[in-house]
Specification:
With 398 residues, the chain is α/β, with parallel strands linked by helices. It contains 17 helices and 11 strands. The chain has a 6-stranded parallel beta sheet, sandwiched between helices.
């Protein structure tokens, strides 16, 4: 594979997508070279375009999940849209959709309906709760899945009024990533069987998979991990601690060797390592209030940088508590040349390289599309004349 060959070069994905889960999935496919044709509603487009205007007038969610795609506006409810979609699917390898539950099937876009005509087509359906079961038709958004999936019950501070959602759309992200890996596996399977297959991804199951640790911790009716704010609920000390200059340092201990080094080289109280109250992780966790005060009192005499230096000298894992500007300016990301510029309707924008770096190819990082930016070109490729395209536009089809 040469530097300009990508793993999914030659693969075409048609996506009936909105919000985050499906767009995040298909952006990963585009990173690997797939041609992604994003179907959007005429006039309005993906409603994520209107979430905010934080990126020079563009929406932050949309910019993040939609680079390297072609935008085709198409009113799927219009009688004339079916022929266009049918022609697209005839040459497509993958159809992705996260429409409302049952909507794709009502339009004749179920895997069963499509497989007869397009036996090599892979269909990926993303929904809140999956096919079947009492929640099949239930509406789902990210925060609601965080709630149904138990995430809120273990996140935030103590007390029923201190639940906290994740600061990003983790249910959407998890579903998008499982859809992405599912499509890659389906492409591999098609290479062996010659047949397309269906992938059914639910946001609920995607997030519940990520909840494995707290679920097994609460196995067989045992109490679940308590909410502990930004600290770990069952490993201690593992969390944020204030310093004397008003800063905060995040640190984590994972074993008894690190605990002994922390007491000796950071707290300068080596005898604390064998204190019966703290001589094992479960004891430190049970007595965390007492231990926290000991650590806070020591750190109050030091600056954040002084604490971090002492932690590094002791080979104790630590981190600065960065805000978003701190991440944009992160020295490690700069040192690894992690940023690229992509085009957009608002001009050049910084974009993070895909995290799974492969020296054998350069990932695609093309422009974030404007609404309907590629409609004319796509329809021209499908054989529509300029007059026919004008007619489709006049009738509100595109």
């Amino acid at each position: 594979m040469t530097a300009n060959q990508r793993p999914l070069d030659g693969i075409t994905v048609v996506s009936l997508e909105h919000a985050i889960a499906a767009p995040f999935c298909t952006r990963q496919l585009a990173d690997l070279g797939a041609r992604v044709i994003k179907i959007e509603r005429p006039g309005a487009g993906d409603f994520a375009r209107g979430y905010d205007e934080r990126v020079r007038g563009l929406a932050s969610h949309f910019v993040w999940t939609n680079r390297s795609k072609e935008s085709l506006t198409l009113d799927l409810k219009h009688d004339d849209a079916g022929n266009i979609l049918e022609t697209l699917l005839a040459d497509a390898d993958v159809l992705v959709q996260n429409l409302a539950p049952g909507a794709a099937a009502r339009m004749g876009l179920s895997f069963e309906a499509l497989h007869e005509r397009f036996p090599r087509l892979i269909v990926c359906d993303i929904s809140g709760y999956g096919e079947g079961g009492p929640y099949e038709k239930k509406k789902a958004y990210d925060l609601l899945i965080q709630s149904e999936g138990g995430f809120l019950s273990v996140t935030g501070g103590p007390g029923e009024d201190q639940m906290a959602k994740a600061g990003c759309s983790i249910a959407d992200i998890s579903a998008g990533m499982y859809a992405y890996s599912g499509i890659l596996s389906a492409l591999l399977l098609r290479g062996k069987t010659g047949q397309g297959s269906r992938i059914d991804v639910s946001m609920l199951e995607s997030l519940v998979e990520w909840m494995g640790y707290p679920m097994y911790y609460a196995f067989d009716g045992a109490p679940q991990p308590p909410r502990a704010g930004a600290a770990h609920s069952t490993i201690y000390p593992y969390g944020p601690f204030p310093t004397g200059d008003g800063g905060t340092v995040m640190l984590g201990l994972q074993n008894e060797r690190e605990w002994a080094a922390f007491c000796d080289k950071v707290l300068l109280t080596p005898e604390l390592a064998t204190d019966e109250r703290f001589s094992a992780n479960f004891k430190r966790s049970e007595n965390r209030d007492v231990l926290r005060q000991i650590i806070v009192d020591r750190f109050a005499q030091m600056s954040a940088e002084g604490v971090i230096q002492r932690l590094e000298d002791a080979q104790i894992a630590s981190a600065r508590v960065n805000d978003m500007q701190g991440v944009w300016d992160h020295p490690q990301l700069k040192a690894r040349d992690s940023w690229r510029e992509v085009d957009s309707p608002a001009g050049k924008l910084p974009s993070l390289l895909p995290p799974a770096r492969n020296a054998a190819f350069i990932p695609r990082m093309d422009a974030v599309p404007g609404l309907g930016q590629h409609s004319q070109g796509i329809l021209d490729q499908l054989g529509y004349s300029a007059e026919a395209i004008d007619g489709l536009r006049a009738r509100g089809v595109i």
